[in-house]
Every structure is written in structure tokens, then in C-alpha cells.
Amino acid sequence: MTYKTTQLRDAITLALVAGATTLAATGAAFAQDAPPDTSPTTLDRIEVTGSRIRSVDAETSQPVLVLDRAAIEKQGVTSVAEVLNRISAAGPSINRTFNNGGDGSSTISLRNLGAQRTLVLVDGRRWVSGLDGTVDLNTIPSAVVERIEVLKDGASSVYGSDAIAGVINIITRDNFEGAEFRTHIGQYSQGDGDRKTIEATLGANGERGNIVMSLSRVEEGAVMAGDREQSAVPVFGLGSAMFSGYSSNGKIWNAGPTGDYDGTFSIIPPNAVGIGPNGQQRYGIDQTVPWSRAYAYNYAKDNYLLTPQTRTAMYLKGRYDLTDRIAFRGDALYNERRSEQQLAGYPLNGGDEVFGNDAGMSGDSYFNPYNPLYGGDGREVNWSHRLTEQARVYQQNVKTFHAYAGFEGNFNFADRYFNWDIGYAYNKSDQNDTQIGDANMLNVRAGVGPSFLDSDGVVKCGTPGNVIGDCVPFNPLSPAGGVTQEMLDYILFTAQDTFQNRSESFTANLAGDIFELPAGMMGFALGIESRKESGFDRPDAFVAAGYTSGNGRKATAGSYDLNEIFGEILIPVLADVPGAQLLEISLASRYSDYSNFGDTTNSKFGFKWKPFADLLVRGSWAEGFRAPPIQTLFRGLADSYESFGDICSADYGGRTATIAANCLADGVPANFIQRTNSGDAYFGQTIFPFSFGGNPNAGPETSTSKTLGLVYSPSYAEGLEVKLDWWSVEIKDALATPSVSYILDQCYAQGDQAYCALFSRRPNDFQIDYMLLGPQNLSVINAEGYDLDLHYRMAETAYGRFTAGLSASYMSQWESQFTSDSEVESAVGRYFDRDPQWRLRGNATLDWTNGNLGVTWISRYYSSLVEDCPFPGDGLCSDDTRRDADGLAARNKLGATTYHDVQARYELPWDGTVKLGVNNVFKKRAPTTFQAFANSFDPQYDIPDSQYLYMEYVQRF
User: Fold this and answer.
1) Where is the TonB-dependent receptor-like beta-barrel domain (predicted)?
2) Rounded to the nearest 5°, which phi and psi values hold at 883?
3) Do 607 and 707 form a contact (C-beta atoms < 8 A)?
4) What is the rounded distance in angstroms from the CA atom of residue 591 to the CA atom of residue 605?
5) Are 154 and 729 in contact (CB under 8 A)?
6) 461 pLDDT above the threshold of 90
7) Using CA atoms, how far apart are residues 795 and 480, in angstroms rounded to an integer?
8) What band does 749 get if pLDDT is binned at 50, 70 and 90?
9) Residues above pLDDT 70, as percent of the chain
10) What is the pLDDT of residue 356?
11) Neighbours of 516 (CB within 10 A)
């Protein structure tokens, strides 16, 4: 292995020299966060995520995890998403390890309930979301983060839609004075995946305000799947057995003169010698050989394992005190993300008999070995050729703009204290996608049509005397690499897609004291919000028309608006009495009126009880909802080639008399056999594209959340704090898209004509040639578990100060039903493709500081999982002979995984800090899974067999 440590060494040397020069030139420089503002506009009371009522007590009736900037900087990560996806309550979500199916975005999913059910706020205000309702955390630069508050409870009564699983509130830097320069340089131990960041933050205080500006740039390099053993083949452990049948050599689907496919294939071998003058290479049928697995293609090695991206951001935040009681606040942010994914060259094919398209090679093509000019019978050829000459590349350029302007203040009335704010927020994200490597099927059809060798020695489209201009004859029957650049330029095209998401909101809030009760002052909060959400997806014209080799899709566009009002009350019931040093009750409710589905009211109850000083008991009950996002409502039709089993097929094992009768009534003959891309094979991928689309009649999801917990801070063990919380979430009317098999079952087994109307069959052979798949409010989800947080800060000793922490989440239940009357499916401890359902996740931290030196050790734990084994009897799975009541039920165990990270830092005398760190110290390999879509491990795990080495330097002025 190659270790590019010179880059780190040079960076450290440069940082130390730069810091020393600064000290010599300026003397001891001072830079730190400014002390708290003591003017009347600064309040001793604080607002904690989950409540709009400010309080002097940071502990609330709801569990809130706080990650301050110091804790974040000890992890050696370069994005907000990486920070959040390390917390124990985080479930699987999209990130940079998603190559096929990724788009450069990163999200956060609390409780395994989906990113769309986790609300993301920035400074207590909603951030721009995508068309699917999720927030891309890569649009929020880590350079501006002061702390992150994670509310692990439902909060629709306070914040509205999406706050079902919890709330992420990212608090940005404020009241900063001085200057700070920060850089991070890192790479994996194999010498790839380089990361470079540079941040500069400036802040100044005046007599009546403060202004902060931050500039940052993050560059994250790629790791290729072929450069790690575990991901270098499609399925680790099976080698070439799982290589793609879409070879990089030209492949012929063998057929007789009448065009009937006989089930065998021929291929042009790599050593075939072309025939024809002037480099116009064609290959005769006598040069082909029978296809075998030796010609299968290893597409995995061509893919990214870790996708590259760069992020550039500028942030500005300011406050100006108009009076001692009224202040103007404003902030703005611009963030640009450029990201990329790469897949192996397109597996291009043509021929109606096998592929369901009309791009078979004409019998009159110059390159057709059955051309009558060569003594052939002029048959059309079904063919395939993987275009390894050009990888498929998907690029995104995402520009996010945020602005907020508002006023805030406080006043006293009737010996009561009140605070208020009013403001306008504008968020917009513009995305331009470039897609390289797909084919223009119009040109492919023309290129494999009739062609001939003209008298000038050039092969041309058409026939002698009837040349088709601007057409380049295409020869897919070439060995690997044999497709010429001229052919590629003709058949390939670059797609340009545009997306936009936009949100505008007006908010006004008032909070304060109502009246004095024996136990204290009753507090309240009232607020209104008016918001409009809009967005669109405008695919390339060729994509929308369905003229590409990839899946076509129509445009998406839509908007909705809403008006909301909420109220919250905090009631102190008891204080300083035996058995109740404190007892508080909180009540909240929010009314929301949406333009698309109507109105909804969601309420919440919480309590906080301190029976004695060391112990706090807390609990809550909350209603929640998630409004359907723009994509759910207005999605344009998009092609998808689904794998399914047709229950009308004679080889379907579960055909009942009812199904058989209904199939016959639909005109399907009793001897009908389903045909797929694998030939006449039950349960395979359809040869015709089905359509996914939106549902303008979709309604909101609803939820009920419960928590009960305790916070124990024993006076006899100063510095120790224990938090234990039980939680439960029930979701009803969850949005889900019915599968093909479900639609067919509802039509033929249940006789529901509404589902029968969603698909059609070809009249000549009764194959299903179209189906509409759209989201509906169908499903039920129940999740339950426990969170444990331990924190112990020891007293200062002669050997320094030690701090230890443990944060763990235990999932005791995660059950779902596709419909309310469907069978309950339990997911806890199971692995599903890109959806690991860990029973236990935990992080342990040990921190030591002694003077200017500090060291942090972090351990990240993922419990074991089991998955269904797709290769029983091959010896790959841990229990491939397992049986249950239904017969063979092979399983594979994914072992528990623990990663260890270490960071050492030193405070330099010139107000600088240098940090050296290694993540995944022991090069832990992710557990191998055979259900994962790619790479043989889930993308939630670290890059296998790799240490991540980094250096950070911070200089303050």
C-alpha cells in the first residue's frame, strides 16, 4: 500500500511556520468567542429545542442531545451529515457512499423512521427541503455550526410537519469576535479519498451589535470500488460468478431465420480480427464463439465506492440593537455543492424479441454477419454491448441560498417579562444535473439500421443512392473497446436536468409570563407562521420524451401553501415541597391549514418532576403529522423496470380458483406464461417500462409519540450524569407505493377494479406492458426503544482531567404493516438492502487533557444483524442450511462492528491548535452482506480495510 503522508507532513510544517511567524510579527494574539452580552437585549433565559418558552433550566420534559463545537471538532469529520449520522439514535440514510442511487446529498434519519420524518432547523427555522421532503445536510457548511441540538421526540405541536421522529436544530455561530483560520487535510491509508478544507471566520463587536462572516471550502476525493477487496467484485466471495452477462464484447442473441430466439448466445471474442477496408471493421458469424461466463463483465470495479464532491460556502450573520429593547437580526448563506457519481459503461442492447425495443440490427446493416451480401439470410439481430469505452457519469451542481431578516425584542408589562420576534425567511436551492454516458436511442436505431460500404470506402447509413446524412453506422458487434470514437459521439448524448426547491415563510412569536402560581410563574408562547413551498424537476427534453437508453421521466412541478397558529403553556404545579422539589406540566397545540389536503390539529403534553435535587423524571405524549411533499403530490411519470411475478402466469405457484377465474375474465388464457428480460421466466424484470407517478390526493401521515425518562445527577458523585429514556412512535397512514405484486393481488385475488385499472396487457400475448405505481396512505409503523446517556467529568488531578461518556440507543421494536390489515413484519436486528435495523448502536468517548495537550478516543458500535441468504448451499452464508416451517430459510449473520477513532491535539503558544487523528484505527472491515445493492457491505459502515488519517490546524487572531 502507498502512504501519501508527505502531504500531511508538509501541511503540519506549513501550519507551524505560519503560526510562529504570526506570533513573531504581532505578539500574543487574542481570539475567542466574545463574552455574553450584558445589555438588556440579552436574556438569561434560554430557548431549548422542543419549546418556544424560554427558561433558566436547560433540562426539559423532552430528551435533547446537545453536540457543541468542541465535541464536533474531536471527530475528524468534514460535514454536518457525518456528525449527525454518528449519533446512536441515527438510522440509515443517504450519504457519500451511495454511488448508484446517490445524488451527492446526505440526510439524517432518526429512529430508522426515514429522513422525511426528521425535521431539520437552522437557528430554529426550517431549512429548504428537496422535492421528496428531505433536507440535504450538505447545503449547511460545518464551518458555521456553533452547536447541534437533537430533539429525540415528536414536536409537530411546536414546529409543524415532519417532526415525527425528532428535530435537528443547527445553531450557527453568533457573537464571535476576532478571526479564526482552520484547515483540515486527510486521506485514507491507501492514498485515496483525499479531503481538504479551509475555513476563515471573522467577527466584530460594536457598541450596538455584532457581525460574523465565514468563508469555507471543502474538497472530498473519490475512492474506487475496485481499490478495496470487499467491493472489487459484485458479490464478495463469489468472484466472477456474479459478473454481468452484459459483456464488453459484442453479443448476439441467437435466432433462427424466422427470428425465434433459441436460448443461446454468441459473442465476438477479444482476439477477433476485423474484416473490411479502411478500418471499417465488421465481424463474420464464423468469427463468433459461444458465450460463456469467461466473457462476463466485472462492472463493480468501475464504480465509485466513495463519491467525490466539493462545497464552497459564504455565511454572514449580524445583529444591530435599535434600542435597548429592540434589535434587528439578519443572516444569509450561500452554499455551492459539486458532486459526482460514476457507474460502469452502459449495458446497451437492442431487439424487440428480447429487450422490448425496436433497435435490433437490420439485416441490411454493413455490420450484420447475416447480411445477404455475405451469404446470410438477412435476419435482424438482437444484440448487446457494454459501452466500456465511456463510463456513465452523473454530476450535480447545487446552489443553495438562504436569507433571514427580522426584529426581536423584550419588554415588561404589569411586572411580567415578555419576548417577541417577527421575521421573514427565504430559502432556495437550484440544482443542475449533467448525465454523461447514456445513449440517444433514436441515433442507435439509425446507426444499426441499413448501411453499406460506399464507393469511397466509407460505411454510410442508408442504401446506395439514398444515403442518410448526419448518421454514423454503429457496430455493437465489436470486441471490447472496438466501438470507435466517431460511433460514440453519434450514439451518446449528455443530458441536462434542472431542479429547484423554494421555501418562503413569515413567522411571529410572543412568549413570556402569564401570572404567578404558588410554585412559580406560568409561562406561555404563541406564534403564527405562513409558508409557501414550491419546486420543480425539469428533465432533459430527450429524457422526458423517452428517447434515451436510461429511464425516461416527465417533468414535476407544484406548490402548496399553509397557515399555522400554535400555543404553548408551561405550568409550575409544585415547588420545594416534600416529594416534589419541582413539578411542571407543559401543554402545546398547533393548528395547520394546508392548501392541498385541508387542516390538522396536533397537540402535546409533557411533564417534568424532581422528587429531590438529584433526580429528574420526565415524560411526554405528542401527536404529529407529515404533510405529503411536492414529489408525492405532483411527480411526473417516471419509467421503472420492475421485477415481479404475474399471478396469471400458469407457472405461478399460488394460483387459486378465484385468481384463475378472474384472469380468464380479463382475457388471459389459462396457458399464459409470463416473459421477462430473462426469457420465459417467472418472476423477473419486465421488458416494458412501468411508470411511477405522484398522487395529488395523498393525505398526511399521522403519528403518536410517547417518552418517559429520568436524569440522575448524584450529589455524592460530582460530575456524573445519567440519562435514560423510553420512547415509542406509532405512525398511521404512512405513505407507501404499492408493489406490482400487491396491485395484481388486489385486482385478481380481491377483485378490486380500481387496482385493475392501474395496468394493461398487450392484446397479442397478454404480457403486462404498462402499470402505474403511485404513493398512497396505506401503511402502519410502530417503533419503540431506549436511549442511555452517561457522562462523567472527573475532577482535575496531577495527571490531568479525564472525561468519559457513553451514548447508546436500543431498539426493542420496529414493526410495519403495508396496510392496516396486513401481516405485521418485525425488522429489529434484520438487514435489508440499504436499510440495516440495528438493535443497538452506541458511542463511547474517553477524553484526557493535561495543560496544552489533549487526547480523545471514540468507539462506535453497531450490533449484529441477520439477513436472508440468496445463495443457500454455496457455503457463503453463516447458516445456509437453516430451515423453518416453510422449508429452507437460509440466513447470514452480519457480525457486530466496532470502529475506533483517536485524536491528539496541542495548544500552541501563539494561539494556534494542531490536531492529528486516525479514524478506524484498526482498519475494521464492514460485515459482508449479500443483500446489499452494491459493494457487499452497507453504505452506513466505514470504508473497509482503511484508516482515515488527518491533520487539522486552527489559528486564532
Assistant:
1) 493-921
2) -130, 150
3) no
4) 15
5) yes
6) yes
7) 68
8) very high
9) 93
10) 64
11) 12
Q: Can you list the positions of beta strands (E) in 268-356? A: 289-290, 304-306, 309-321, 326-343, 347-350
Scanning the structure block, which residue is given the C-alpha cell 460514476?
342
Query: Residue type at 110?
Result: L
Average pLDDT, the chain: 91
Q: Is there a contact between 502 and 535 (Cβ–Cβ < 8 Å)?
A: yes
Side-chain half-sphere CA neighbours of 241 within 13 A: 8
Q: Is 720 within 8 Å of 792 (Cβ atoms)?
A: yes
Query: How far out from the chain centre does Cα 758 lie?
Result: 30
Alpha carbon distance 22, 512 (integer Å): 48
Q: pLDDT tens digit string along 782-820?
A: 999 999 999 999 988 889 999 999 999 999 999 999 999
837 and 831 Cβ atoms separated by less than 8 Å: yes
Q: b or e along 521-560 (b: 16 or more beta carbons within 10 Å of the residue's beta carbon)?
A: ebbbbbbebbbebbbbbbbbebbbeebbbbebbbbbebeb
Q: Which amino acid belongs to residue 333?
A: L
pLDDT in tens, 813-867: 999 999 998 999 999 999 999 999 999 999 999 999 999 999 999 999 999 999 9
Report strand pairing: 125-126 vs 145-151.
unpaired
- DSSP H or E stretch at residue 489: helix 485-491
pLDDT tens track for 361-388: 999 999 999 999 999 999 999 999 999 9
| pLDDT tens digits, 321-346 | 999 999 999 999 999 999 999 999 99
Nearest to 596 by CA among 623, 632, 567: 632
Length of the chain: 957
Q: What ranges in 610-691 are assigned the alpha helix state H?
A: 630-634, 657-665
The answer to whether the beta carbons of residues 714 and 720 sit under 8 Å apart is yes
Helix (H) or strand (E) holding 191: none
| 3-state secondary structure (DSSP) of residue 227 | helix
Report the run of H or E that residue 32 belongs to, with start and end.
strand 32-33
Contact 291, 251 (CB under 8 A): yes
How are beta strands 309-321 and 326-343 bridged, if at all? antiparallel
Do the Cβ atoms of 957 and 29 come closer than 8 Å?
yes
The pLDDT score that the predictor gives to residue 10 is: 45
- The grid coordinates listed for 126 are 426550517
